[in-house]
Amino acid sequence: MELTVVMPCLNEAETVEICVRKALTCMRENGIDGEVVIADNGSTDGSQQLARDAGARVVHIDEKGYGNALIGGIRAARGKYVIMGDADDSYDFTNLMPFVEQLRDGAELVMGNRFRGGIAPGAMPPLHRYLGNPVLSFIGRLFFPSEIGDFHCGLRGFRRDSILRLGLQTGGMEFASEMVVKATLQGLDVREVPTTLSPDGRSRPPHLRSWRDGWRHLRFLMLYSPRWLFFIPGLVLMSLGLVAGAVLSFGPVYIGKLAFDVDTLVGASAMVVIGFQAVLFALFTKVYAAEEGFLPEDRRIRRLVDVVTLEKGLLAGGALAVAGLAGLVASLAHWGGKGFGELIPAESLRLVVPSATAFIMSFQTIFASLFISILGIRRTRENPVDIAASAAEEAAEAVSREAETVADRESVA
């Protein structure tokens, strides 16, 4: 079978029948060997029977959620290609050929773009059309090497085997973002075609909740991009702190009537420590995610982990600790020079704050080196060849033992 059209369904009695008939008619008119699968997520309005009467195959998905319904329907699909779309009659199931043609041409994921194809009046709330979708799609393109203009279009086609290999896991509306992000990170051939959006045919409110589901999409994009979540903010914060701290270590800085002194130096120190910690978290996340298969392995991170060994990390941390201790000894000497009496904060803190910062970062570096070394321990996994070889050896040993047993019996007889 070439094509399966999968529609998630939760109480879509008003529209599911027309959607199924449109999809089947499109496939029949274009000579496509295909089917329609309704991934029912617990409808109580008779949607299942209406879908069957229209010619669809209904599969029941017990685990609630848009993503759960879709992945269940994709697994149940029999077609080489899958086109997914909502069963609310907002997408044009009579015009599936642009997706099919791209898939036949070798594409692995074909996204619809509603902004290029046309959005009918009333089909998309202004909040989604002018803020939610454009902003989230921009963030998706910024965080990941993607050129997709409409990250959240619900009408999309793909090779079933390619998408199943991605190991999609999210159960809610963020499933739409997860598919695009993982397909992009894994280097799949992702393309885009114009599609239209019409007002849905339901009399009830949609399942989508703007702010809740928008946050879930944004959260997913951030969690799958340690570079933008940790590394870049941390690097900026640490750089600003280092520059400010280096300047203020030599004396106060005046900008007009504003005076920046040791109080600002303490703030700069905090920026350095927090920024350095964020950069380390980016490294931790990338190593862990690659080892567990959440993200593809980053060659730059792997090269960094191979080059910056535990021993080098311990040496770097030790060097920072020595610098910090040297600064603290100098501050004690300064205090001794004052007879161990009351100090002028503007003088003493210029020694204490940078020294304490170096000392803190030394322990961060040492602990990070130890933790990355633990994350980098690769577990031994048996591959299919190893498993087959072990099974063959066991079978050979069993046959040998059986032959010896038969020979012993014959000799006794």
Task: Characterize the structure shown.
- The chain is an alpha/beta fold and 413 residues long.
- A hairpin with a 2-residue loop joins strand 8 (253-255) and strand 9.
- The model has no long low-confidence stretch (mean pLDDT 86).
- 59% of the residues lie in helices and 10% in strands.
- The protein has a seven-stranded mixed beta sheet.
- It starts with a strand and ends with a helix.
- Helix 6 (126-143) packs parallel to helix 9 (210-223).
- The protein folds into three domains: 3-223, Alpha-Beta Complex (Spore Coat Polysaccharide Biosynthesis Protein SpsA, Chain A), CATH 3.90.550; 226-375, no CATH class; 382-413.
- It has helices spanning 16-29, 47-54, 66-76, 97-104, 114-117, 126-143, 160-164, 175-185, 210-223, 226-248, 262-292, 299-307, 310-337, 345-375, 384-412; strands at 3-9, 34-40, 57-60, 81-84, 109-113, 156-159, 190-194, 253-255, 258-260.
- The chain crosses the membrane at residues 228-255, 267-289, 310-336, 356-377.
- It holds the Pfam family GT2_TM_C.
- Keywords: Membrane, Transmembrane, Transmembrane helix.
Using brief descriptors, characterize the structure shown.
alpha/beta, Spore Coat Polysaccharide Biosynthesis Protein SpsA, Chain A, 59% helix, membrane
